[in-house]
Specification:
single chain; mainly alpha; 8 helices; 80% helix; membrane; transmembrane
């Protein structure tokens, strides 16, 4: 894959895209689960905070969130600490994309929580299990199983959103394609190659997600 000497750079950009997406998905899933717990809390304050957080980041354009995190967050931290704070493009991209991912995944987790039969929880409580033990042994495994299809869709959207981080200078796949195009004046070759790499990453991801779904359903009645 030479592509006029830019093949290695495109592959490096694709690898950085995957790293960015994986980090954002992991952090976003954890934050989304915490947001879901806030949404179903008995505390009105926590519920309001959870729904407010999710609605805010679902309403904002992804590009705007990236720009706010990259340019605005350092200024806010400097105002709070009194010291200059710098956030690199990769870290800013992870933070911004994870905030967006968490806003949507919290609704996925909340739907999965509601999909768990109440009888299972009632039986666990009757056997003397506490709330956190029920969460760990009863709810969490089923939430993961029920959420996987929707989380897979969010993952594919996240992969495409990584291209937006190019605007703050991160040299992921889209940025590498732009740089190669500016030098060679051959946009069809390099944007076409970038498109092909995105498709390959998506196909491999989809295959992996399907395998995870099949594994999560093992032992269930047909």
């Amino acid at each position: 894959m030479d592509l006029q000497g830019f093949g290695a750079q495109l592959l490096a950009g694709a690898w950085l895209t995957i790293q960015l997406a994986v980090c954002a998905a992991l952090l976003g899933s954890a934050l989304g689960f915490a947001t879901m717990l806030a949404k179903i809390s008995d505390s009105r304050l926590l519920r309001a905070a959870g729904f407010g957080f999710a609605n805010l980041f679902r309403a904002l354009p992804e590009l705007l969130v990236i720009l706010i995190v990259y340019f605005g967050l350092p200024q806010m931290l400097m105002a709070l600490s009194g010291q200059r704070v710098e956030i690199g493009p990769f870290v800013a991209g992870v933070i911004a994309l994870s905030l967006i991912f968490s806003a949507y995944s919290s609704e996925v987790f909340r739907g999965a929580w509601r999909g768990i039969p109440k009888g299972q929880v009632e039986a666990a409580m009757a056997s003397g299990m506490g709330p956190w033990l029920i969460l760990r042994r009863i709810r969490f495994p089923q939430i993961v199983r029920l959420s996987l299809p929707s989380l897979g869709n969010l993952w594919l959207v996240l992969l495409k959103d990584t291209s937006l981080v190019a605007v703050i200078g991160l040299q992921e796949l889209m940025r590498k394609a732009q740089m190669a195009t500016s030098v060679t004046k051959d946009p069809f070759t390099f944007y076409g190659t970038a498109a092909l790499l995105y498709v390959v990453i998506s196909i491999v991801s989809s295959a992996g997600l399907q395998a995870m779904e099949r594994r999560s359903r093992r032992g269930l009645a047909a």
